[in-house]
Amino acid sequence: METIGIPRALAYYAYYPFWKTVMATLGRELVESGATTKAILDEGISEACTDLCVPIKIFFGHVAELKGRVDKIFVPRLVNVSQGDTFCPKFLGLPDMVRYGMKDLPPLFAPRVDLRKKVRGWVNLARMVADAFDSSIISVLQGLEKGKRVQAAYENLLLQGFTPKEAMEILETGQKGKVSDPGKEQVGTIALLGYPYSLYDDFLNGNLLSRLRALGVKVLTPEMVPEKVLYTKIRSLPKGLFWHFSNRVLGAGLYYLREVQIDGIVHVSNFACGPDAMVNKLLELEAKKHSCPFLTIGLDEHTGQAGIHTRLEAFVDMVRWRRQRACE
Amino acid sequence: MRITFPYMGHSHWVFRQLLSELGHEPIVPPRPTKRTLDYGTRYAPEFACIPFKVLLGSYLEAIELGAEAVVTTGGVGPCRAGYYAPLHQRILADLGYDLDFIVLEPPLRNLKDFYRQLRKLFPPRIGIGKLLGILSRAWVKLNAIDYLERLSHQIRPRELEPGRTTKVFEQCLELLGAATTVSEMKAAREEGRRLLAEIPVDREKELLKIGIIGEIYVVLEPFINHNVQILLEEMGVLADRSIYLADWVRGNALIPGEKDIKRAARPYLKELVGGHGLNSIGETVLYARRGFDGVVQLAPFACIPEIVAKSIIPAVSSILDIPVLTLFLDEQTGVAGIKTRLEAFVDLLWQKKRKGAGAQWKQVTLA
Ligand code: SF4
Ligand code: SF4
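Output (structure tokens, whole complex):
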């Protein structure tokens, strides 16, 4: 069976179940690269241009890891998925950057995903997939439909608070899982904001999410807010951002600040990320307006786990202290 | 109204004229200096691109001079520039300055809004004829500046007395700046041309040809690029710049042109990535075709479109056999570092040229 490698990076965390299903209905196997490791990161650093953000470097590392063990590598060009905004320009140029930046690659499967025009967008996508795999457009359309259903189930699980990894397991095994218990919400509730590939790549962020939970914090992420709600918040701004994942993060920040009792915000931002410079400042100003404690964790290739943990602990201490004082 | 505007290259001469003819008091921000940048760096996000920081700093300096409003352009992405204005405004508000921001979004996007914003700038009862007069005078001035600047770039690499062209060009700008009517501008332009033509030059001098590409702000603002173009010219390089003010207004505000650049880029980059990312690829291809010896790419540190371009350019460079030097610029960049890297690059190009390798660049067309 023809195998298609999918790098476990960037949009993987958002759309893997969808593509897995589509490929399966076409009789192809979607093979993931392993979880990020030091070796993958190092490989990415050596392959990619120095000034790129870490998530892209990690993506390059995952592509390299797949080299030689799959027939094709999946590097989608994500342009637009639903809300009229586009992806960060690095997503827009991703297949070109990989193609011209790396050597000895197997062929890329690089469909352009632009769903701004609903019907036409899906048909175009189906055509690209059909061309790439010599299948009939009808069977591809059926595959896409099935993929959408699985994707909806996946997003539903994320809404309930499962992490992508947990949700994928549940979909895979069919077993009902239980949302990791945040403890008895002893310390408080923190909105953990960041792109899926920053929040759920445990290697990159030094296990941030489980660390927070272990500290007795109830963690809320952008994935736990329905997209519709996120975007009502974005539309309430004089001008929304241009980038999909950034709007999700900003929208979640606004939502949690305005409509949920939270005790703090942790923004996980990436070194040399263009959009984050904007997102981070907007969140900071908004948090200030609501007198909500705000912490930025900047991720780069040298961020040590220890450093992140110390800062998290100090922040959680502060949150706890503020709460106690408020009760007195 | 006391209005300020983004400081970029020589454009302030035009803004100044435009705003005062519209009955406002233009507050021209001081030419950016280290102080401007310090201001900007202090209050802007760490990873904001350098143009964002310089502009923030220069708004703060303009506020010190009494500015009450800012007129600037918007944008629809996918790059950050379109979000400059809202964020600048919020940061300034957070510092306690409530400035009115008049943001001109591309008219094709939302004509009503464009008009509403524009209205704020116009005096209440202005005839369309008068208005057109004002706009056309600004346009004439803009083109005159570009014309003289282009000329200066032809002359500087051959000048016999180092620094002369730069001095004369400053003088030209003063002349043009003082001109207010079209006939005065034409006279100033002619006078400037004459002054430039009088500069003693070495006509026989053999020159390298280098194209300058990159993000518009750092290409047009000598303070950030440390006068790259002049540095190159003083090293005996005929430096061709891809962007001039008027081209930019024409290309971005009026007609979506630059088709040939996009076509040239297509084999390597198939998507618009905002800013000048696609242009940087396309222009590299075109410079190679035109037989240039090399290309210098100017990019703000962490600039999204330029880093996308930068990731692809090495391939373009080796396929088309045209060396490219990328300079990422941020607040730490010093002129010494730039100069050293330019000198090394120029040396390399001379070696390549003398070996004759440069003459046989191959033209490879990819499907
Ligand atoms: S959004 Fe930021 S982190 Fe993500 S790809 Fe773009 S620059 Fe990199
Ligand atoms: S093109 Fe580059 S410098 Fe200009 S706004 Fe975009 S990211 Fe910033």
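The two ends of chain B are 55 Å apart (CA to CA).
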